[in-house]
Amino acid sequence: QVQLVESGGGLVQPGGSLRLSCAASGRSFSTYIMGWYRQAPGKERGRVASIDWTKRDIVYADSVKGRFTISRDRAQNMLSLQMNTLKPEDTANYYCNTIPARNKYWGQGTQVTVSS
Questions:
Q1: What are the tens digits of pLDDT across the range 15-59?
Q2: Residue 73: beta bridge partners?
Q3: Given 4, 89, 96, 109, which residue has the most CB atoms within 10 angstroms?
Q4: pLDDT at 74
Q5: Cis preceding-peptide flag for 100 (omega within 30 of 0)
Q6: Is the dihedral of CA 40, 46, 51, 52 positive or negative?
Q7: Quick check: 40 and 21 in contact, CB under 8 A?
């Protein structure tokens, strides 16, 4: 069974940091463009960051540029998102998936809550 499992979320104060991880199993995603998405209550899910298999083509949403860093370990089939200087508007459930996203790969996500 192919799965993408997100972890690392939690409650953090504004200005704090979190590191999210995405573990892939069941197949290799090493040649896929991978990305992080997020969905806040009452809003559509949107892309946060993406990284290609060479790790040279990296794209961020304007709202997270300079604060978030996406990375991947192709050998370990892992995707990460380092989130710094977190803001309340970053509160959302975060998911990893391919780019473009494939419905069969959506997992439960990991909840990030930024609040004092």
A1: 999 999 999 998 888 889 999 999 999 999 999 999 999 989 999
A2: 78
A3: 96
A4: 84
A5: yes
A6: positive
A7: no
Q: How confident is the model at residue 100 (pLDDT cuts 50, 70, 90)?
A: very high
Structure tokens at 18: 């979190």
Return the residue matching tokens 């972890």. 7
Query: Which residues does residue 70 pair with via DSSP β-bridges, in sequence order?
Result: 81
| 103 three-state secondary structure | helix
Output DSSP code: residue 101.
Answer: -
Structure tokens at 3: 């799965």
Strand-pair partners of 80: 21, 71
From 112, 110, 99, 111, select the one nearest 22 (Cα to Cα).
Answer: 110
Cα–Cα distance for residue pair 74/34, rounded to 1 Å:
11
The pLDDT assigned to 30 comes to 87
DSSP state of 15: T
